[in-house]
Write a structure and sequence with these properties.
138 residues; mainly alpha; three-stranded parallel sheet; 6 helices; 7% strand
């Protein structure tokens, strides 16, 4: 199961729990958020399966969309990588990458190397001291 499939399954379980036992103290927006995440993850998964041109950007997604690229949320995936139940630092070490830089930009590299996220065709980031996401391109 790749990252998008795992997110879809996780959010479907959450929706089922909400719908089977509604909590009046919780906002309806929670249900809408999970529905939206499922739909968005399904779209990204289909783009990956179709072989669409994918990109990872931090803030230039409109420019790359104009060139026909589909922006994938690599940094957001790092935030939710625990859904995969994997140690991506081990993946990085196995492939010779350093494991001591910012996890927000390093974890997506491990996810790509392990096949849980698609390898982007282009990455556009700005220079940060912890920025390892640009290494995907090399």
């Amino acid at each position: 199961m790749n990252y998008f499939e795992a997110i879809i399954a996780q959010n479907q379980r959450r929706l089922e729990r909400i719908r089977n036992d509604p909590d009046p103290t919780k906002l309806r927006i929670n249900e809408l958020m999970y529905e939206n995440e499922i739909k968005q993850s399904q779209e990204w998964l289909e783009a990956w399966k179709r072989g669409d041109r994918l990109c990872g950007t931090m803030d230039q997604s409109q420019i790359f969309s104009a060139f026909g690229f589909r922006n994938i949320p690599y940094i957001s995936a790092a935030n939710k990588s625990n859904v995969m139940r994997k140690d991506y630092f081990d993946v990085l070490r196995r492939h010779g990458y350093p494991d001591h830089s910012c996890d927000m930009t390093t974890i997506p590299i491990g996810m790509c190397l392990d096949g849980d996220l698609p390898l982007p065709h282009v990455v556009s980031v700005w220079n940060h001291a912890c920025d390892r996401e640009g290494d995907i391109m090399y």
